[in-house]
Amino acid sequence: MATILHRIKAFLYENLLTTAVRTHVDASDIVINNPSELMVIIPDLESGLYKLEVTTQFSAGKTLLQEPRSVIFDKILTVS
C-alpha cells in the first residue's frame, strides 16, 4: 500500500462576495487529515458567512506535488 503524504493549509473567507477577508486556520487545528476526510477546528470568528479554502500538495507517493492545489468548498459556514 502506498504512503499518503499531506500538507494542508486552510483559510476561511468572510463574506466572500463583498470583503473576502481571509482568516488563517493554524495547522494544529486540522485534527483529521485523511485522503477522503478532513476535520478542522474553526477559530473564533465574527458573525457572518464564511467559505473554507483548503490548499494541499498531497501525493500517493514519497514526494509531494510540485504545485499546491486549492479548492473553495461550496457549503457556506454561518456564524451567528
TrEMBL record:
<protein>
    <recommendedName>
        <fullName>DUF4469 domain-containing protein</fullName>
    </recommendedName>
</protein>
<feature type="domain" description="DUF4469">
    <location>
        <begin position="19"/>
        <end position="70"/>
    </location>
</feature>
<dbReference type="InterPro" id="IPR027824">
    <property type="entry name" value="DUF4469"/>
</dbReference>
<dbReference type="Pfam" id="PF14734">
    <property type="entry name" value="DUF4469"/>
</dbReference>
